[in-house]
Design goal:
Chain lengths: ~300, ~800
Amino acid sequence: MSDLQSQDYVRRSATTITPPAARSHEDQVAKLIDVSRCIGCKACQSACMEWNDLRPEIGHFEGSYENPADLGPSVWTLMKFAEYENEQGNLEWLIRKDGCMHCEDPGCLKACPAPGAIVQYANGIVDFISDKCIGCGYCVKGCPFDVPRISKVDHKAYKCTLCSDRVSVGLEPACVKACPTGAIMFGSKTDMTDWAGERIEDLKSRGFEKAGLYDPPEVGGTHVMYVLHHADKPSLYSGLPDKPRISPLVQVWKGAIKPLAVFGIAAAAVFGFFHWVTVGPNEVQEEDELEADRLLREMKEEEEKSS
Amino acid sequence: MTNTWQDIRNANLVIVMGGNAAEAHPCGFKWVIEAKIENGAKLVVVDPRFTRTASVADYYAPIRPGTDIAFLSGLMRYLLEKDAIQHEYVRSYTNASLIVREGFAFQDGLFSGYDEGRHGYDRSTWDYELDEKGFAKSDDTWQDPRCVINLLKQHVARYTPEMVSRICGTPQDKFLHICELIAATAAPDKAMTSLFALGWTQHTVGAQNIRAMAMVQLLLGNIGVAGGGMNALRGHSNIQGLTDVGLLSNQMPGYLTLPNDRETTFDDYMKTRLFKPLRDGQTSYWQNYRKFVVSLQKALYGDAATAENNWAYDWLPKLDVPLYDIIKAFEMMNNGELTGYICQGFNPLQAFPDRGKIRRGLSKLKFLVTMDPLDTETSRFWQDFGPQNPAKPSEIQTEVFQLPTTCFAEESGSLVNSARWLQWHWKAAEAPGIAKSDIWIMTGIFQRLRELYRKEGGAFPDPILNLTWKYTDPRAPDPEELAKEMNGRALTDLTDATTGAVTKGGTLLDSFAQLRDDGSTSAGCWIFTGSFTEKGNMMARRDATDPREQGIAPNWAWAWPANRRILYNRASADLNGKAWNPKKPIIEWNGTRWVGLDVPDYGPTVKPTDGVGPFIMNAEGMGRLFARDLMADGPFPEHYEPMESPVDNVLHPKVAHNPVARVFADDRANFGKREDFPFVATTYRLTEHFHFWTKHALINAILQPEEFVEIGEALAKEKGIEQGGWVKVSSKRGEVVCKAYVTKRIKPLTVDGKPTHVIGVPLHWGFTGQARKGYGANTLTPSVGDANTQTPEFKAFLVNVEKTTAPVAA
């Protein structure tokens, strides 16, 4: 998206200066996706394409109702369908609307080396400011939910904006407006959390003892939350992370190198810019990947030891 | 629908069987979700596949396609055996107590009166014993073995849980659990709503599928009450309106029926339609039939319809067969008996069974006219599109006229929704290019035809020359003018016999109760009378106020009949006029009249104790557990196997299929055998598309781009079919080469001890539009219809499936 609301920033990528946050009185917002009342009709996908004027290519059938086959620079939300046989041997068809979770502690923003390319507004929405994006793909690595995608056409990163343009003028996101069954709700995070509580109670009364809210603390909570019948196993829902973690690569970048951060960011920005004009969009190097993998492995081992 | 979409929220139990509401009616499905959240309702789904509706259900059970009557008969047996029926309702509001004639019988799959030669019944025994006054005899104690309730018990006795499971493949425990959930709604203050659609109609026993559930609902006392009813979810915008205005070959507007060729005089015609009450003091509203027909004739022929010419009765077509349905039309086309065809808003090359036969038929026409906003497959049937439409243009002589029409947003008018609401809509945009409204095109054809008749005479010019055509612009009647014509007017001053109130000649009528049979009123569709009155266009009303938040907003649009939102609503109250469910009353007796949320479906001042039945259209005033002679295939539903079936009919092997289904010889020769085509197939829609229209829209094409079939994991493994791999699905009539969706959502069913695989065939793809080209599900389907309606059997037939490779691109 474009840079419409700089007065609302509470966070800004690759910047240590505190943004103005003139509207810090704003409520934190949240979109609540109640998986238990979603019928997978894709009205949300359709509305997203309409409002944001996105038209991915007509694809092929690829062995699922999921179309297009994956999130993409023109696919900001996607219904995912998982066939799951429960302990009683009964089938459940777990349908989840996938897209940006708008983390309170956004890994993409942390990872982004381009000043102001990723921002977070006072209401919690995490937005990509396309004209500042250098297409390096660090946000892709930084995202614990595998959401951002780089366009092969303009080499910029794209994802759901939570319709920040609509929300800023008092409208609900397009997907919320289009949902025929009220499975997608939008409002203040407090209200959504309260409503989720009622829904969870209803689900428990219907035999889903492990029903719960997905608002993972690992990323400081999210501004897109799910009501899940199986909150104990989020990964059943087409791989929703059980415990989302920001890539250790980003942690290293933000942690160990912190003393050099100011210089680093400036250099990265300058380097990034020249790199982009001379070589093209940045790519994550193989060494970085290997290092990240190693850190991930170590982390997992630690987790296993502690659990 | 007997009830409304909004009323679904009042249900305690929602059963979706014979339909897939979430998939095909996602917007209306919000009321099911509402029922679950606000009313604590349970949702039960019975379907061959685990559908999108099943994904949000509280309980799901599988069923073999085409066996719903066995399931529902087993359910009736359960309710009767456990005495889980609403006694007072059944005894007083249904024909349970009425005594059936001696001679009525059912044996070895056949009801009494079967004539093997003509594949039809003499239905004279399918009726009540009458007393000397001509009223039906009854026994309220239910001791008489020939009471309807006892004959019903006897009829369904064969459908034990074991038998249901053996026929349907539904595991017994699941069947019984569903029976138990349903039985709980026999309580007077509990209601179940039945939501169904083409999953029930598209069978050779389609009408009886729906009868069976209607009987269940009567036994439970769930008809006429809030949150109850039989709710047919209409699959096309305004398809309800199509039937209301009688766009079927044997119908006239308002469910009046066309005469047949044995009814040579108006009196002959009226003899079988003026239904005399079958019990003392009943309303039998069809007693007014003559008023409706005369008013219709006045709307059609104006001053030319007179008492002297029997209201122009001779100008009405007289049927020589029960129905000129579409299956018959294409049979005639193939036999060279029908040489010109006008397809208005209809795409038979995609929509009707046995695509090859449809294509061959169209190829034999002299001319074909298509009227459609879209470039339909039917319009292009003659063009070679490769394997998906292997036509040879050089061998086809049909002249095709493709007339582009406006779509709904480019014209004003009314649409009738599933809940019988006539909702006015306003033109929002100009039509593109040379597109014209259907009214403009039809008028143009009519004017030219009339001119030809005027100049050249012809075999029978009167019905055309005498049609009244008094519109402001005779070349393009205005939608409001047409709506007023449907509503009807007083043609002279009318004085009400009881109140003495005078309705001035020329004024629009408020109610069909004002219609007369002396030529002093006109009404183009009597059930629409009241929709456009002197007060204005009632269909354009948009007041959503719902006084009790009970799904009845009486000032939103207008519902036929008489703005009544819930049909049979008298049955929502007990014998004293008090609501069965005091929390959700619809109408109640206040001591002097019926009052409440809705327009009473009953005489407004008829006392509840007067013994007038709540089903006022019926001659006995009661809901019918026994349908008398009104169905072609029996007064009780019976399980017959689909025309193509993987098993014998275990109940009566000699009468395996519906014995009165009409089958043309060439179609019979095209039925496949189970040895060659061992798998059961069923066709259906997906949420991403609307029939064959939205593949023309880019976003819908993106959301579901390419033809596929759904195959269970077990069969896929057996056949070596991979997820997303290519398969060839073939029936006796043709083959479809497409991708496979290997899924856990279809499991093999154990039917009569044998594993039975079901294959799902979504129907959206063709060879025009934006989505990828497809063969179309109707390439596979058999050309045979329901014995009553001739709705094609799209939901149960036989196929084979094999692994294959991608088709060669054209």
